[in-house]
Amino acid sequence: MTEENVQTRAKPSVPQRLWKWIRHDWGCYVFLSPMIIGFFIFTAYPVITSLIYSFTDYNGIYYTAFGFENYAKIFDFSDMGLGVGVFRSFGITFAWALVSIPLGLVLSFLLALLASKEIKGIGVIRLLYYAPTIIPSIAISFIWADVFRSDGIANQFLALFGLPASLWLEGEGTAFLTLILTGVWGIGGNMIMWLAALRSIPPELYEAASLDGSGRLSNLFRITVPLCTPMIFFNLINAMIAALQAFDVYAMVGHGPNESLYFISIRIYETAFGGSNQYGLACSLGWLMFVVIALLTAILFKTNHWVNYGDES
Amino acid sequence: MTLTPETDVSELLARSKKLRRRRYITGLTVRYIVLALLAVFLLFPYVFMVSKSLMDIVDANSATPSLFPKNGLHFSNYGVFTEYWKYFKNSFIVVAINGFFIPLTGFMVAYPFARHNFKGKKMMFSVMMATVMLPGAVVMVPTYIMFNSFGLVDRLASQWVGAFWGGGAMNIFLMIQFLRGIPKDYDNAARIDGANMAGIFFYILLPMCKNVLLFIGISTIIGRWSDFQGPLIYLTSLDKMTIAVAFYTQFNSSGAASVFPNVKMAMAVCMTIFPMILYLIFQKQMIGGVKIGGLKG
User: What is the CB neighbour count within 10 angstroms for residue A154?
Assistant: First the structure.
């Protein structure tokens, strides 16, 4: 670089730099404009107002107080406070995420292994496995609510084998397990992802391993699973965020028997729109939920050493 | 088996080949049986739904329910489709607008992220990805109040005004990943020929990314078709409702039509047909899209 060049480059005036920046980047900002405008209207503004509301008793028309009362109420575990109910809701939601996500991943993996071999008619079979996930959530909720009534067809099925009847979705102790059971019918969705992941593994790896005397099982745990870890991790994050916001069970059983399926997002919805218009309280519950999701995401990212991105040498 | 000089090698080979073939066929048969049993199990909701939709009211409310209709098939239950046609129409409007503009605007946003360097790129990308963690519950109330002040509550428009702003971080991220897989040589060649950003976007990249756009469009449509939390909040009068929420309010345990479980299932079948047709038509794109989303995380 010559001396002349350095001098002219070192001292462009502020408007000059601004002009250069705009001339260089304006096209990009035009393309980004939907997101930028949408971010301010649908994210930034609501987030800020939500934070303000969470410190008030806003009901849609006015508010009378400003302070930490909502948060105090949420963490008040006495009979006057909401602590017990709120933390029960969080507990149910966590339990749902903790059981349904790993179970779904493992079962769909097994299903994918079974359906991965290219044999005649496998395309149709895969399509059939995927089919239950296409049923809209409201329809499938009604189906399960009907099947797993206390006098529904599930008990007829048990009676066929001489087993005692269960309360299924209508029993406080069985509702949660029944909900997990209904989730099994949705494993076809993840199966497709596993299939894609399995297909992307280069077959040379298996050939090399079998030359070294590796068996099928060790192939599975030393080649297949490690190479699928990026997909598992991506899926884990998305599934966690989705599971913590699970709402569809509301159509199936509402709160569940004795509020045993009162998920946190259903509680927030009812707090705001269930008739009592406790908008401020609903916002503070939403923020609590955000903190929980952010913490869990951070933990997942901090502990992702098991994910094999294949770029460390 | 021990090998002696008298052993006929070719016979041995033939026998082992036969044995292997027999083993292969048994393995295949077992595999097919397991696959078929699993299919029967997983298709149970369909069997239940279709079968119950054809029952008469006595059969459907029987205290000892059976899987298949006992009193003949009653296709008249499907008359509910014409009765609910206006809600289907509302849903079609909502999914059409969302399914068209979300992939389009999302792709617009993905383009500079994948192809250009501009001031604030890193910051914008991190902010965008951070919004994935933001639960809907945080913005639910202020958005409702904002929509209310714009007069959007109880209007169908409340279900599609959000379609023009990129459609969310995960969609945009998916498209960025897809765009990164396309060599930049295409852009450069077009630029040498005098194309500007808009030209490259519309004439080069848009056609090349048809499949990922279709994937996002179809998943948006299927998602919106069954979405019922949003419409439940915003649509309060029955004739404005989308099909999912009209179905819910009329047929849930406190709804007016809840005493007709057979009609309820006929309605469920009607609601399932549309996403099913879409999925069958766009099978390739749907599976291909899952591939991109799953692997390049």
Answer: 21
